[in-house]
Amino acid sequence: MTSETSPTKPQPPKHGALDAEATARIAQKRLKRVCPSRRSKVAERLKSIPVRARLGYLAAAAGKASPRKAIKAFCLECVCWDRAEVRQCTSLACPMYAYRPFK
Q1: How far is CA 28 from CA 4, 8, 25, 76, in A?
Q2: Which has the closest alpha carbon to 59: 41, 40, 34, 78?
Q3: pLDDT confidence of residue 10
Q4: Which end of the chain has fewer CB atoms within 10 angstroms, the N or the C?
């Protein structure tokens, strides 16, 4: 048998993962759902949020996320978007402590 070399095909993103361009497109649509009086502040904060967390944050900011996803966004924002820090949370007095994700 002869082995033919074929050009490598780009791998599709992992299940649920979006590329940066797709995330930006969806983020712009979701930003329009945020109350106009808050939109500029949310857009400004969005610049400092890692790409992987932006869509969840926007859904929560627009009031379109489930309570569980809103808590996840809250906890991640509290610890500068580091999942490991959410697991290691030491803020025992936080009202979200018992509900925090990534336990």
Answers
A1: 44, 32, 5, 21
A2: 34
A3: 52
A4: N
Distance CA 102, CA 97 (A): 11
Q: How many domains does the chain have?
A: 1
Residue 61 per-residue DSSP state: H
Task: List C-alpha distances in Å: 3 to 6, 8, 9, 10, 13.
Answer: 9, 14, 17, 20, 27
Instruction: For residue 85, give its domain range.
Output: 21-99
On whether residue 3 sits in a domain, the answer given is no
Task: Yes or no: say if 50 and 42 are a contact pair by the CB < 8 Å rule.
Answer: no
pTM confidence score: 0.71
Tens digit of pLDDT for each residue in 17-39?
677 788 888 888 888 888 899 89
